[in-house]
Amino acid sequence: MVNDAYPGLSGKTAIVTGGAKGIGAACVQFLAEQGANVACLDLDKEAGNSLAATIGPNVMSYGLDVSKSSLVHETVKKVAEDLGSPTLLVNNAGISHYGTVTETTDQQWDRILDVNLKSYFLCAREVIPYMLSAGKGAIVNVASVQSFMSQQRVAAYCASKAGIIGLSRAIAVDHAPTIRCNAICPGTVDTPMLADAIADVSDKEAILQECRDMYLMKRIAEPLEVAQLVAYLLSNLSSFITGQAIRIDGGIGLEIGASVRD
Fold first, then answer.
1. CA dihedral 62, 64, 70, 74 (to 10 degrees)
2. Fewer C-beta neighbours within 10 Å, C or N terminus of the chain?
3. Which residue in 6, 130, 157, 215 is the catalytic one?
4. pLDDT in tens, 15-60
5. Which of 4, 8, 3 is nearest to 234 (CA)?
6. pLDDT digits (tens, 9 = 90+) for 89-111
7. Any idea where the domains of the chain sit in the sequence?
8. What top-level class would CATH report for the domain 13-189+222-248?
9. pLDDT of 210-244, one tens digit each?
10. EC number(s) per UniProt (predicted)?
11. Is 157 annotated as catalytic?
12. Which pTM was predicted?
């Protein structure tokens, strides 16, 4: 049964990159529940196929490296043929890397920027013509709270996420009023990327508790919470919102460290 809580999504074709796991998978499932036809783009095609099979016929999986221009071009064309012209885009694909500027190689830097930023440009470039032809479209780019602040040793990742905000603003300016484009900036989310980041840590629970304690809400986010914000920004409910970087971060960075005591 289609949930119509987010008007303007039912019957539309949405593309979600990095859609097989984590935030991307939550977006695929939630948008499908709103009646959208959803293309799940992911390097892990097997995981994408499995997700699509559990959701239903309005989800199709496409395996590709979204940082490769020719593959993106071919895949978006195939999505249009299979599901209809895409007018909704969620750029979510992302990878992490730990290292300072001096610790990061050319290859590591290029790979992070290629996946986390260039792929957003490539997918937008392919999908925007369909949106313009339809006379309407919406894009959500998944950035990070680290677009605004940084932990240690994430130079390439932090740069890529800050770049997403600038790209989102530029798309919003260039293609208004037909297309809206916003960025969302999650804090720590319970995803496979988080699990991978702490895979080699001996006391994983201590690290997770440290993550929880950073936030005013004293917890980390669930992927569905992020997906609901994405759906809102794609839907007609947000029709006067564009070019924004919206933080969904549990209030991190709002509180000064020391407290005043009597």
1. -10
2. C
3. 157
4. 999 999 999 999 999 999 999 999 999 999 999 999 999 999 999 9
5. 8
6. 999 999 999 999 999 999 999 99
7. 13-189+222-248
8. alpha beta
9. 889 999 999 999 999 999 999 999 999 999 999 99
10. 1.1.1.53
11. yes
12. 0.95
